[in-house]
Amino acid sequence: MMNQAESIKLRAQSMTLKNLIELYRLCRSARHQLYICSRKTMCKIKDLIELEMFRMANRENECLIVIEGKMAQELVRKAQSILSDAQVQ
Description:
Blueprint: E1 4-11, H1 17-29, E2 33-37, E3 42-45, H2 48-57, E4 62-69, H3 72-82, E5 87-88
Organism: Bacillus paralicheniformis
Protein name: General stress protein
């Protein structure tokens, strides 16, 4: 099976540290890549420090979370439950 890429548009207020840590752990446990994109930046998240630095530096109202891997669609569904007010694109 080939890798898939799925995305979630995320409002800034749902980018809590707790939510992002859960999302990061979900992707890591499934060996999927996690990317966060804003209008000015795209970041491949390699560790939790990088994720928190992006969250702290991001001043935009929303960003795009991209999950890449063999079960990306399934992980996006799980991520939606973690990020309850996220909107799937």
